[in-house]
Amino acid sequence: MTQVTERGTRLPAAPRAGVRRRSPAAAACVVGGAVAAGLGLGFLAVLVIVLWISSPYPDSGPGGALHLAAGLWLLGHGTELVRYETLSGVPAPVGVTPLLLVALPVLLMRRAARLGGVSDEDDEDVLPATAVFSAVLCGYLAVGALATVYAAGGPMPADPISAAWHVPLVAVLAAAGGVWGAKGRPLGPLPNWLPGGVRRGFVRPRYALALRAGAGGALVLLGGGALLVGASLAWHGAQVQASFLSLTGVWSGRFAVLLLALALIPNAMVWGAAYALGPGFALGAGVTATPLGSAGAPALPRFPLLEALPAAGPGTPLTWAAVGVPVVAGLAVGWFAVRRAREVSYGETALTAALGAVVCGLAMAGLAAASAGPLGSRRLAEFGPVWWATGAAAFAWTLALAVPVAVGVHAWRYRPAAGPGAADTAADADVPGGGGWHDSGVRELRWELMRKASGTLVPEIVPVAPPVPPVPPVEVAPVAPAPAVRARRAVTVVAGLDLGPAPVAPPVPDAPAVPPVPSGAGVRVLARRKPSA
Questions:
Q1: pLDDT of res. 425
Q2: Taking the model in full, what pTM does it have?
Q3: Residues in CB range of 154: below 8 A, 6 or more apart
Q4: Percent with pLDDT over 90 in the chain
Q5: b/e map of 142-172 (b: 16 or more CB within 10 Å)?
């Protein structure tokens, strides 16, 4: 019986830690994408419901407010809404997307993708980046499809064709950014499907610096655009205040107008940058505002930000001063494109600055395309900057200024040191592979940096005094021997003791000058005689 019991059928063993199940992790990523979309919808729904409750004239019920919230969520992805209640009876598209509203779905989607790509426990399964990206995207797009269908019954439904590619585009970019951040933001080699010339042109150190330089130039342009918008709002302060107060007389309506103006501030920054670059922005069919002048504007709706538009007429020195914004942007791109290494050639620095100009132009083109859109079907069908003109102008300005600035900064930062070591530096530059490593002070500086980084492992460099050249021997002429004189021991004179005068040695004839002997060599100490009691 014991043998039968011991040799019975084995029970199924528990799953080992090495065998991991990926289905729960994939399901969690799908749920995370759906939750991200739901949080964005919920935030806008709460905001719209609060404004609807506080409004003294609620035309529609809570259902209409929820439909409007779904439409605003789709508008935050760049989807065009259709407004049917117009004076002419022709449906008018609304395609100007508040860029601040885009930040809500992007941040939520990026957070969901980042959380799906990490694990809290060691034994928890970690999905590959492609699996996390696909799972989060599926959950988000499922909620987006439901929101598109639900918004179709509201006062401003979404265009289905526009929603079919705008929502996936924003979701893909946000999810890719989240997965990239979860994997440690790697900057590996470019994909193999790109041409070889492109992959060689965008080697890792080069395109990392180009991205930083282009981003710096784009930020300078946006900052300059914000400065122009703020100055124009202050210049037209009275008109802006009158427009804000005339739109509505209740606090809830004014609060809604204020929220919309805040959401459109990033759009105004991009428009200001496009204005400073030269192409300007369109205010309707055939009407463009540039620093050289503006032909006026059509019948625009009353809105505080629109009151800050430049006046009709030719340009003035005040509007021409806006050209200083792209000049500063070009200087910034050239400054950030310089690599902190002496072994980089001038051609490499110039190429990095040129790539930074390309990045800046692409960034401004994308922002211009996102900030513009139609506000109607006729004269207001074109509203905002033209994306290709803005991108081309940003590229031209930064390229013309960044390349010479980068080369000049490189030459100034790594100029040869003047002094006795300048000749040695020039000689080392002719040696293949010298490259500035043996420049005056470079080795000491690098050794000091290595010593500080390693603690006490690397000894400190102690300056060594230059060697003293040997003194040639000097022949001394023979001297006649002096008569022998009995030398007496030196004594110490004590008061009350008279030892008599000591004999004086006869004078010795002068001998030729002999080089001085270093101090401390052959010193003789004489004995001291005690006085007798």
A1: 46
A2: 0.73
A3: 64, 66, 67, 68, 70, 71
A4: 40
A5: ebbeebbebbeebbbbbbeebbeebbeebbe
